[in-house]
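Please check our next protein.
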Amino acid sequence: MHTVDVMQAMLTLLMATTCPDFFSAQELQAGLIAAAIHDYEYPGVDSSFLVNIRHPMAIRYSDSAILENHHVAAAFASLSDMDVNPMANYSEDDWVLSRKMIIEMVLMTDNQNHFTTLSELRSKLKNSASEFPS
């Protein structure tokens, strides 16, 4: 259910605002894919728990953005095996760019960086308020 909520929130944000005017179709699709996979194969525990029990995922990702790295890696592995892959017909350049954007977006969901990211977003919005129509 959480994934559907996040995708719906993303779609609502995009459709109810002028956001689509600022992003390409490829960026918008990458955002929706990132929303869909951002918690793929979530194990039900947080990263600190995985570090504390020396879980293989914590070791694999060197205790850094463990869950987020796993979500992206597992999702892309699954997408490569699926009959329905939203990026299947992309050119090589578009695939590489979309993958990069999706990885960046999912990694931004790491709660360790939540307050820093939120502060940066608020600062950017405050500094660019004049650029957005009211």
Notes: The mean pLDDT is 90. Residues 2-124 form a domain with the Catalytic domain of cyclic nucleotide phosphodiesterase 4b2b fold (CATH 1.10.1300.10).
